[in-house]
Structures are given as C-alpha cells and as structure tokens.
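Fold it.
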Amino acid sequence: MILILFGPPGAGKGTQADLLKEKFNLLHLSTGDLLREEVSNETALGIKAKEFMDAGELVTDELIIAMIKNKIDNTTSVNGFLFDGFPRTISQAEALNDMLKNSSKEVDKVISLEVDDSILIKRLLERGRSDDNESTIKNRLDVYKSQTLPIKDFYSKDNKLIQIKGNQTVEDVNSDIVSNLS
C-alpha cells in the first residue's frame, strides 16, 4: 500500500500520518527526514544533497526521488509507505509515479484533507511558531494553492483521490480515512 497525505499547512497531515502508520504498519516517508538521514550517514546521495544545501540551493527532484527509491527498495518490514508533504509539484508527482512504475508499484490513494482557510489560519496561529503571523500564514496558503493544489487534479483523473473533511475531530477524520481505505 502506498498512500499520500495531501493538504495545506495546518490540515492535520502529521497527526493523521502518525495514526495511519500505526494502524496499517506503513513507513512514514518524510523527504526532510530522508534528506537528514542520507546527509548524516554520508551516503553518496547524502553527499550530493549536501552540496546543494551548502550552496543554498534546493535539492533536485531527481535526488529526492533517488532517496525515496533507495528507502523503498531497502525496507521490507512494513506493509507499505505513507508520503506526507511529498509530492509538492506535478513534476514531483510524475517523477514519483515513474519511479514506482519501474519497481512495479503505484500510488494506491491520495488522501486530501480539506479544511477552510479560516480554520487553517486559526490552527497555525495556535501552534505558536515564532515566524507565524496571519500574513505569513496566508502567504504559505497562497503558495500551496498555486504550486501544490494542482496535484489534486493530477491524481483525481486516475481515481486515486479521496477527499476528507479535515475540520472534524482527529478521531472522525481518521475514521473517515480508514473507512475509505477499507
């Protein structure tokens, strides 16, 4: 089983990821965690990634996909994988699909947590991160809408998209997700 948790900042992806990985014995794949692991272990991919990072550049999609492939190919003790925060662009989604297809795998479902902007802003302000104010939060939501939201259509055309009302309780959101996966 390969799942993608999708939604704007503050939608509850991290909370649901924790619940789903336990319930279905999935490995939670966070690209940030993968990057840190590869760099700290000084793997060939980590050394390349560090070069980009040290130069203040974004690590390329190709390098991220290679890290994901490496992790998927070398993990056998789980029933599948759960992506949270990746892919963020259509090109990343296409690269992920191509990499999985080459391994005779595919994304099973994309779970989109749907939450109104007003609720997202309230949630993010309540988290109390020092760099969060209403203006920066609205900017993050605008970036999400322009760069990441098109992924919904990308996966919708393959009937992989599940839309979940994310403004419910954590338990109700999780229950809706699980019932849609069963």
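The chain is about 55% helix and 15% strand.
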